[in-house]
Amino acid sequence: MRTYEVMFVVRPDLEEANIKSVADNMKDLLAKNGATVKEEKAMGQKELAYEMNKYKTGYYFFYVIETKDAKAIDEFNRLTRINEDIIRSLVIRKED
C-alpha cells in the first residue's frame, strides 16, 4: 500500500454547507476509487501566499490516504482541475 498526503483549497465565497459538501465529495471520490482515508483535517480558512483566481483566502482540507494503485490519485487530480470550487490541490507520496 502506498501512502499519500492530499491537500486542497476550496474557494472562500461558498456557503459553509457547500464548502463541507465539496470536501465530502472529494473524500467519497477517493473512497470509491479504492483509497482508504486514514486521517482528515479541516484546517479552516487561511490566507493564501499569493492571490489565486482573484481569491486571497481559502478553506484548506488535508487527507492522509492509502491506496494500492494510482487510480484514486489520478481521478482526484482530474476532478480537482475541472471543479471550479477548488482553487488549488496538491498530492504528495510519502516515503515508506
Quick tags:
96 residues, globular, 4 strands, alpha+beta, 49% strand, four-stranded antiparallel beta sheet
Summarize the topology.
Elements: E1 2-10, H1 16-32, E2 36-52, E3 55-67, H2 71-82, E4 86-93
Helix pairs in contact: 1-2
Order of strands, main sheet, comes to 2-3-1-4
Low-confidence stretches: none
Q: Work out the strand percent.
A: over 45%
User: Rg to the nearest angstrom?
Assistant: 13 Å
The largest β sheet comes out as:
4 strands, antiparallel
Query: Cα distance, first to last residue?
Result: 9 Å
Percentage of helical residues? 25-40%
Descriptive account of the structure:
By secondary structure, this protein is of the alpha+beta class. The chain is built from 2 helices and 4 strands. The protein has helices at 16-32, 71-82, and strands at residues 2-10, 36-52, 55-67, 86-93. It has a 4-stranded antiparallel beta sheet with strand order 2-3-1-4, covered by helices on one side. A hairpin with a 2-residue loop joins strand 2 (36-52) and strand 3. Helix 1 runs antiparallel to helix 2. The longest helix has 17 residues, at 16-32. It is globular, with a radius of gyration of 13 Å.
Quick overview:
The chain has 96 residues and is an alpha+beta fold.
